[in-house]
Write a structure and sequence with these properties.
Blueprint: H1 2-22, H2 25-34, H3 39-61, H4 69-92, H5 98-105, H6 108-119, H7 126-143, H8 153-175, H9 182-204, H10 213-250, H11 253-264, H12 272-306
């Protein structure tokens, strides 16, 4: 019993730390923007450095790089989706406050449930509909400020595209049946992302600029390690020890972290509409997470009853 409590305690701390780590994306990105780096350069060095670190870990673990053709197709899809999600999110930071963007991004669990309902014929539930309404209401409130001004429509569309592509990433990860370690999966996903950002830079005619000085390299390293590798490892422990539902709920700290960073580090405004919008979106995510847990529990109970 004591061992179980310790595992849950460790899992809870891991879930909290993972969400906070993910929420620091704006810190590294905006600091690099202030230093004059463009989005393509920030993401290229973030992904490239993270991939290099994962490659070293793979070397020490002596993991084989070989993949089957079906695995290659799934990994390609994951890589492309993650490129789109990251690029659109980081581009949205140019059009709106990073805290607002990170909060709208957190609609991805609701999008995931909606996609599973529409395209994979999962049963439409009251929880899904309620979560959809709450998240839409939250986004609308974030779109309108207290004084009547509105967010950039380009920025909103960019971050919604980021949330949608991340929702598709999660679905493909769950249904792709990849029989390999998370380290190996991320080795290939990060490789695709680094190469994808290189291709994007060439096609868009954007030069890749090196980080300027120690401070700039620090924030590149931060993006690669903290919201990248650290968050990934901590999320694995959280899901293992406290389950996906608790991990999803603890993930609410991700947009809250981004909002606090925007507020205290970059002086972004905090309004009543923002506060209510955050609460509505987080409530939608909690409802979806609890409904998914109940569905899983009912399914397990039904299987046990039949056997």
């Amino acid at each position: 019993m004591q061992k179980l409590r310790n595992r849950k305690f460790i899992g809870t701390l891991a879930g909290i730390a993972a969400a906070i780590c993910y929420g620091t994306n704006p810190l590294g990105a905006l600091k690099q923007y202030d230093a004059g780096m463009q989005t393509n350069s920030v993401l290229f060095y973030r992904f490239g450095l993270a991939w290099a670190i994962i490659a070293v870990v793979m070397l020490f673990r002596k993991e084989k790089l070989r993949v089957t053709w079906p695995e290659f197709r799934v990994l390609t899809g994951l890589g492309l989706l993650f490129i789109v999600s990251s690029l659109t999110l980081y581009l949205s930071f140019h059009y709106m406050a990073a805290g607002v963007a990170s909060t709208i991004l957190f609609t991805y669990p609701v999008m995931t449930a909606l996609i599973m309902t529409i395209f994979f014929h999962e049963r439409v539930t009251f929880a899904t509909l309620l979560s959809l309404l709450l998240s839409c209401a939250g986004v609308v409130l974030l779109y309108w400020s207290d004084n009547g001004d509105t967010l950039s429509m380009v920025g909103v569309l960019l971050v919604l595209a980021s949330a949608l592509s991340y929702a598709l990433y999660i679905i493909l990860m769950n249904r792709g049946n990849l029989q390999m370690s998370p380290i190996k999966i991320n080795f290939y996903v990060l490789l695709y992302c680094a190469l994808g950002m290189l291709a994007y830079s060439l096609i868009a005619g954007l030069p890749l600029t090196l980080p300027h000085g120690t401070v700039s390299w620090f924030y590149v390293s931060w993006l690669a390690l903290v919201p990248g590798i650290f968050a990934l490892v901590l999320m694995v422990y959280a899901a293992k020890y406290v389950g996906s539902t608790a991990t999803a709920i603890l993930g609410a700290l991700e947009p809250l972290t981004a909002v606090l960073i925007g507020l205290f580090v970059f002086g972004e405004p905090f309004t009543v509409y923002l506060a209510v919008g955050i609460v509505l979106i987080l409530a939608a995510v909690v409802i979806i997470a609890m409904a998914q847990q109940k569905k899983h529990t009912d399914k397990v109970t039904d299987i046990k009853t039949k056997t």
